[in-house]
Design goal:
single chain; alpha/beta; Peroxisomal Thiolase, Chain A, domain 1; 5-stranded mixed sheet; 4-stranded mixed sheet; globular; 3-oxoacyl-[acyl-carrier-protein] synthase activity; Thiolase-like; transferase; ACP_syn_III_C
Length: about 350
């Protein structure tokens, strides 16, 4: 039997309309990790934050919206953008980390699975459409794509919906300046088998997990405000450690994926890196160029959404991909036959990369 190409048969995304600007944090009271007030003004904190991360604003879900609602909106668009009927899906994989958190509760709710909730909202009746959630940190959507690729390639199934959605705004410590990084959103893709003669779709991938000292680079912890001892936990990260880890590991992961795909770096038209920090992504691209002794022009090669959308975790790459494929990303475009790279890093610590031909 002919080996199929594994392609993106449809994409969709949903970005909440509620805009939170950097100025909205001026009235926050920020504390250091050891519970002390900063000796500089919020204006200075925000100015330095924007200079490093590139973030000017981010999007938060409305109070009545849940993570699964965002994923459903993206899933509808992906199906409408595809060539299949919803009943032809074999799996729905929902990459997420904190479930459906009801606004202002700080409570993680993963039962029932978000994937099953999306199936219900889509009114899919076929019992053979199997649903499960994938918790893999920010690289979760890309890991779901890798799983879909492996399942389809095995002949076990043909069409897999992979969703990446998160409402990180509901896991934030308002007294931690790092909380300004995170945001909400969702992206969805239909990963399908295609029997075209030309080689296209997923050409190669790489992934790894480092869980020694890296395990706690990004984890849940108490508020920086020592007076807020209510037992709630918030997302916490060791920014410098994550930066150093990402710089060392993401570029080498991309290199492995390129080797496995047989594609040269100079043939790549776009590099979609998880939108965690603009300076970090630019440094990763420089490191990648150094591995191949190639000067890389990030302005032309690497689309960025973090300035307006912030870091919405598992949603960043599928949102960028959807915008790119549907000509909604100003200054960037791709066409049939172009090779692109997608790479991500996140809690675990996990790294993954996929080389894809449009």
């Amino acid at each position: 039997m002919k080996t199929p190409n594994i392609i993106f048969n449809g994409t969709g995304s949903y970005i909440p309309s509620k805009i939170i600007s950097n100025e909205d944090f001026l009235d926050h009271t920020f504390y250091t990790e050891d519970g002390k007030l900063f000796d500089i003004s919020n204006e200075e904190i925000i100015r330095k934050f924007e200079k490093i991360t590139g973030i000017q604003e981010r999007r938060y879900a409305e109070k009545e919206q849940l993570n699964s609602d965002l994923g459903y909106e993206a899933a509808k668009k992906a199906l409408a953008n595809s060539s299949i009927d919803k009943e032809e899906l074999d799996y729905i994989i929902y990459a997420q980390n904190f479930g459906d958190i009801v606004y202002d509760t700080n409570r993680v709710d993963n039962v029932p699975s978000l994937a099953a909730k999306v199936k219900h909202k889509l009114q899919i009746k076929n019992p053979d459409v199997v649903c499960y959630d994938l918790i893999f940190g920010c690289p979760g959507w890309l890991q779901g794509v890798i799983q879909a690729y492996q399942m389809i390639l095995s002949g076990f199934c043909r069409n897999v919906m992979v969703i990446g959605g998160e409402t990180l705004s509901r896991t934030l410590d308002p007294h931690d300046r790092d909380s300004m990084i995170f945001s909400d959103g969702a992206g969805a893709t239909i990963v399908s088998a295609s029997y075209d003669d030309d080689r296209k779709g997923i050409l190669g991938f790489a992934n790894r997990t480092d869980a020694d000292e890296e395990l706690n680079f990004l984890a849940m912890g108490k508020s920086n405000n020592p007076a807020l001892a209510n037992g709630s936990k918030y997302i916490k990260m060791k920014g410098r450690k994550i930066y150093e880890y990402s710089l060392d590991k993401v570029a080498s992961g991309i290199q492995v994926a390129l080797k496995r795909s047989g594609i040269l770096l100079e043939e790549v038209k776009k590099v979609l890196i998880h939108q965690a920090n603009q300076k970090m992504d630019e440094a990763i691209l420089r490191k990648l160029g150094e591995l191949y002794n190639l000067p890389l022009n990030g302005e032309n090669l690497m689309p960025m959404t973090i300035q307006k959308f912030g870091n919405n975790s598992v949603a960043t790459i599928p949102v960028m991909l959807d915008m790119l494929l549907n000509k909604k990303m100003e200054g960037h475009s791709i066409k049939e036959g172009d090779d692109i790279i997608m790479a991500s890093v996140g809690a675990g610590m996990h790294i993954n990369a996929v080389v894809y031909r449009v």
